[in-house]
């Protein structure tokens, strides 16, 4: 009977020890599961944040590309306008040079003719200038 009691006590002690080990292992597994769950949520949150940041940066990049395209178009427009103005400037310089030559010719002509002829030539010259300026304005 004593052997049986001691076996029962050893069995009860072994049962208690195994139950404590099992409870301890269960607690460790629950703790590991919570840590795993927390890490998974954290990783998912980081992934979501990175994806959101990526899309935000992509949108900014697309806006910058569009802005650069607009600026490029504006630059082309300004270059065409500059070319047009340069041609106009060249024509104006040529016209000014021509007017200087005409004035020099007129001065030389005035020296050659008398006062009455000079007044008549002024009248004719002013008529020609008005006609040419009306044509150039068209």
What would your notes on this structure say?
It is a single chain. The model has no long low-confidence stretch (mean pLDDT 88). The chain has 138 residues and is mostly helical. The protein starts with a helix and ends with a helix. Helices cover 97% and strands 0% of the residues. The protein is rod-shaped and about 165 Å long. The protein contains 2 helices and no strands.
Would you summarize the structure shown here?
Helices cover 97% and strands 0% of the residues.
Outline the fold blueprint.
Elements lengths: L1 H111 L2 H23 L1
Instruction: List SSEs in N-to-C order.
Output: HH
Percent helix: over 70%
Low-confidence stretches: none
Sheet of most strands = none
The general outline is rod-shaped
Terminal residue distance:
135 Å
Structural class based on helices, strands and sheet pairing: mainly alpha
Find the count of extended strands (DSSP E, 2+ residues): 0
Number of helices: 2
Multimeric organization: single chain
pLDDT averaged over residues: 88
The rounded Rg comes to 51 Å
Strand content: under 5%
């Amino acid at each position: 009977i004593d052997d049986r009691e001691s076996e029962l006590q050893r069995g009860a002690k072994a049962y208690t020890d195994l139950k404590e080990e099992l409870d301890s292992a269960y607690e460790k597994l629950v703790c590991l599961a919570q840590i795993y769950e927390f890490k998974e949520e954290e990783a998912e949150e980081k992934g979501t944040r990175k994806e959101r940041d990526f899309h935000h940066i992509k949108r900014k990049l697309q806006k910058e590309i569009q802005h650069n395209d607009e600026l490029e178009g504006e630059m082309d427009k300004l270059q065409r306008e500059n070319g047009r103005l340069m041609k106009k400037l060249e024509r104006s310089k040529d016209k000014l040079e021509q007017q200087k030559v005409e004035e020099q010719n007129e001065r030389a002509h005035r020296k050659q003719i008398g006062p009455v002829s000079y007044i008549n030539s002024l009248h004719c010259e002013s008529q020609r200038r008005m006609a040419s300026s009306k044509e150039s304005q068209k």
